[in-house]
Design goal:
The chain has helices spanning about 1-35, 40-70, 80-110, 120-165. It has about 180 residues and is mainly α.
Amino acid sequence: MMNWLHTVEFLGLSLWLGSDVFLSFVLAPGAFRVLASRDQAGAMVGYGLWWMHMIGVVCGMAILLARLLRTRTFASLATPAALCVVLMILLTVVSQHAVSPKMAALRVQMGSIQRTAADSPLLAEFGRLHRISASLEGGVILAGLAALYLMVKDSVLETKRQDVWRYPPPLVFCKCCI
């Protein structure tokens, strides 16, 4: 059971981190290169971002729940790895519920980002929010990488502790006993 819960933790983090990296470095740049207009590309990326945020929050909750069930102590939620996951959830929720709706409202007001004048205050505000959104996603990726490193480190240490009890050290005799 414990191995299964550990697998859920790693799988959840890997799915979330992988989806964020894919959206940021493959889907978004590709959409703006391939689609006919920036408005279409923005709509596609916005759609993918919504799904990635929902999947991320579900994965984050699954990670924390699996950790809690595996360790059977709330103290495990205060470890550095778990706190990185909590930070990932918070950054994702802020992006989804504070930044994305404002960007969507600005898109509606402008009608078309592509046809909006470069000196428009609406476009300037959209650009500012876009930088905040990108920073939040960057924070999620960095916190995810830190969480992955810490989870692997904890897993190796836990395995070593278990091996000490599983495989007792060989008998060592001092010189006087030989």
